[in-house]
UniProtKB/TrEMBL annotation:
HAMAP family: His_tRNA_synth (MF_00127). Keywords: Aminoacyl-tRNA synthetase, ATP-binding, Cytoplasm, Ligase, Nucleotide-binding, Protein biosynthesis. GO terms for biological process: histidyl-tRNA aminoacylation. Residues 20-319 form the Aminoacyl-transfer RNA synthetases class-II family profile domain. InterPro entries: aa-tRNA-synth_II (IPR006195), aa-tRNA-synth_II/BPL/LPL (IPR045864), Anticodon-bd (IPR004154), Anticodon-bd_dom_sf (IPR036621), His-tRNA-ligase (IPR015807), HisRS-like_core (IPR041715), HisRS/HisZ (IPR004516), HisRS_anticodon (IPR033656). Coiled coil: none annotated. The gene is hisS. One of its GO terms (cellular component) is cytoplasm. It is found in: Cytoplasm. GO terms for molecular function: ATP binding; catalytic activity, acting on a protein; histidine-tRNA ligase activity; transferase activity. This is Histidine--tRNA ligase. Homodimer. Its EC number is 6.1.1.21.
Amino acid sequence: MRVQKPKGTVDILPGESQNWEKVENITRSFLTRAGYREIRTPLFENYEVFSRSSGESSDIVEKEMYDFQDKGGRHIALRPEGTAGVVRAYVENKIYGPDHVKPFNVYYIAATFRYERPQAGRQREFHQIGIESFGSDNALSDVQTIMLGNDLLHELGVKNFELHINSLGNEEVRKAYHDALINYFTPLKDKLSEDSQRRLGTNPLRILDSKDERDKEFLPDAPKIIDYLDEDSKAKFDHITQMLKDLGIDYVIDDDLVRGLDYYTGVIFEFMVADSDLWASPTTVLGGGRYNHLVEEFDGPETPAVGFGIGEERLMLVLQKQNPDLFADHGIDFFLANIGEGTELKTIETARALRKQGYQVDFDVDQKKLKNQFKKADRLKASYVITIGARDLAEGVVQLKRLSDGKQIPVALEKLGHMADIIAEL
RNA sequence: GCGGAAUUGGUGAAGUGGUUAACACAUCGGUUUGUGGAUCCGACAUACGUGGGUUCGAUUCCCACAUUCCGCCCCA
């Protein structure tokens, strides 16, 4: 049988997988220090969990969802984003109850699925790193969320990202702004690109984001969301941006910033990376915002919330380019080479003992010639080779050799239990 | 969903309608058996994404499909 992975999926093989581990370990450590704990929710949910929260008319729901009927006739969907499932879990487990400390802060690193045409940094199965904070509407929680995104990217070594932020208001504000955009663009309809003529009917906000020159000339005079915000939203947005300024976090206010999901209600933001070697136009690596009504949508109590999601594949692309040192391959600590009668057992015993001391140790299970064993040690990028030979063994020693400079010393068998000391002497 | 390009061994690749598919790297074996990253010698594609067609004959021409990549839509 000739097998092939499904379109838009990838195998992450050894060599690559350790890079992911590295990024994920740094991320987990970072978020744990910030008081976020991991949540794991199902890979699939009832279809409605995603269709209702993301917006029935959003592209994600209309054409990108992996959904199917299971054998029990249930309409199931693979998660196309992380937030909805977490909100569902929050409500279903009654985490809004008094037993839980508020805000309730969680993170996840999870596989996510969208039926799309694959491209660089876009797959059908991909991974999102996300955080969500439930229970506070204070600007501090918005600022902290943005700050964590900023600091995490810095800690990982992303160099040239730009933070774009904007504010969407409540339901009424969005409605009024939506209408204003339609009123503005409708008379211009014939001059707009085909895509934007279509957007006028589906999602006029997206016209603001158009890359088509025919559209761009009309954008500067288009209505700005900021002029439609209510006083509270405006004051809060100012408060947030002021704090970012005080924290030394650079940002640009981006009137044209819109996000693909319907549930955002307040501040929204994207961290974008411009790298022409990677993408033709600046690409979002991290995006998020405030969503104060989603919990209610799931029949939970009124609960403000804010969060973000990182596209892990895109993050990896950027890091491999901008911080390759992070992925340096250091190889193993010891390779055990053995030669002569009766050295096999001593070899595997020594491997066991050294591993117990915390070292990465390997040896040649195929027992090839000494020369081949050394070659294998080189291939494994071993720092040291310990040669266990029958002649030496009779005298109670093994040979320890540092491969970088070839220096070799005999080591008494009894001392193998204290490898750190021996290496210090070498 | 729309438009474009690509598809030869483990890797990078050259190449032609017709008897041995170049070259390089890597790998494996050897260079007389206790020490590597050097040199030298040798081995290594039943076959050129899959299926069909044209042809006496196709890896080379045509068609379809698949996958990958690029741009758009959209998004992480």
